[in-house]
């Protein structure tokens, strides 16, 4: 029988929320709606989360970061056994299979960088409707941490938090819209700065980023573009809802090294269009990401995270 962790081995709701970069009410709502309960209670009946609980939440956010809906991500991680270090470890992460892991792109990030805004602070700025400061803090996070780490550790938790707040209350749509616009503005600003700093080779073949015709959610493409700009890769972003004929025509004209197609849901993941696109010449690497493709069996070229997408596209661009 497993020992019940003591208070010194566990974290409070507010402490876990700070580690994850979400609001404490969001954490409580995940328990109520998805069954993600803490492993222990204090003598006074307060929630206490173990290192394993913390690892489970990190795994859930990693899935959400890859585009998996929150409810599905919660269902995936809920009953798995996670191993983790002491809750005093500030950078604990784990993958969706229950084993400790850290994204290799994040692992390469330089150490001892100054800490940028805590995700919980971003959530508070969004709720204060301080769009100017929120955009500034997002841009600062991207500059200090890099696109992959900032997206995973700060921006996705922010977007999850404001989205969950809306689902929980039916209110605060304006907060969600403001946060989304701030993320968009921050990513675009960071991309421009990265292009100026790293000066992509204008003679190299670019990477094309797009969504198929039914996909309206193109925000992840901006994160990919920002990360590629940091690596000195030229990018052409076509954005959301691109008809397959138009996308194929663009590929023939641009002659890219790779094409990345994002899909947030099965209804936007058109396999027939993907197969048609794959036949477009000249040849290039076709990379797909998002839960839409995952639900359809993970076709060739599927990647499960922002870091994996960036690595696949950088490899193709430098081939």
From TrEMBL:
Pfam families: B12-binding (PF02310), B12-binding_2 (PF02607), MerR_1 (PF13411)
Record-linked SUPFAM superfamilies: Cobalamin (vitamin B12)-binding domain, Putative DNA-binding domain
Region feature Disordered, mapped onto this chain: 86-119
Residue stretches of biased makeup (Polar residues): 86-96
One Gene Ontology term of the molecular function aspect: metal ion binding
Residue intervals of the B12-binding domain: 204-319
HTH merR-type domain ranges (all copies): 10-79
Key words, A-Z: DNA-binding
InterPro entries in UniProt: Cbl-bd_cap (IPR003759), Cobalamin-bd (IPR006158), Cobalamin-bd_sf (IPR036724), DNA-bd_dom_put_sf (IPR009061), MerR-type_HTH_dom (IPR000551), MerR_fam (IPR047057), Meth_synthase_dom (IPR036594)
This protein's name: MerR family transcriptional regulator
Originating organism: Kribbella qitaiheensis
